[in-house]
Fold:
Amino acid sequence: MSRSAELADLIRTRAGSAPVQFGLILGSGLGALADQVQGTAIDYADLPGFPHAGVTGHAPRLMIGDLEGVRVAAFGGRAHYYETGNAGAMRLPLEVLKALGAGGLIATNAAGSLRADLCPGDLMLLDDHINFSGLNPLIGEPTDRRFVPMTAAHDPGLRARLRAAAEAEGIPLPEGVYAWYSGPSFETPAEIRAISRLGADAVGMSTVPEVILARFLGLKVAAISIITNMAAGLSDEKISHEHTMAMAPMGAAKLERVLRRMLRDVAAPLPG
Ligand code: HPA
Structure:
């Protein structure tokens, strides 16, 4: 049996066997939403092969249970490339998510803004991304499944659901392009000018590997950024991890409402 199948069995033994519908990767500042899932918490430490996800502000555990009438698997904390140098660090968790029956994944992150109309505390729905790191979580995958198409990788149907949920909540949810920068150092102002010319609206250190892995596994995926700062050189504010962590809750409250609303709509779809 594969490792992901074994872990899915272990999780079902502890959390019940009903299939999971959605996975949620909860980034900086969204740990509180994981706590609102009614179900079973499993520490990553109890799931052999799961990453340590050691960044401050991320609680490394998996919550399996009900959120707004939908069975979800919420990853409170993710592994980043910059922690270990492994771009595929989230592969096993996402394989397990797939093995638990999920069809969709929503990823969240904190990001810096490259656009004057995207301010700290705002949300941005990713309509596409730029892999500015040049890394790829599928390097080393031996099968031809590695040649994953990335056209419409950010699922149009899921994005429409998220936009509708945001509109119903009265929360602006502009779309934009997210550039993945490896981190852990922040970007230089010259890098930000370069990324901006390449077409990015926001920049961050996560999510793109997960989107690639999700498509590889056949999961529909969408992602939302919480803008925590203007990117390097675009404002006088000092950029730091502490600042990111301090600003994330502003957007997190809105993002929680959008996600809850979307799940409620999934549980009880409106006619038509
Ligand atoms: N750059 C990269 N990652 C980030 C930023 C940023 O400005 N803000 C939050 N995460």
About this structure: The beta strands are 22-26, 38-43, 61-67, 70-76, 104-113, 123-130, 175-180, 202-204, 220-230.
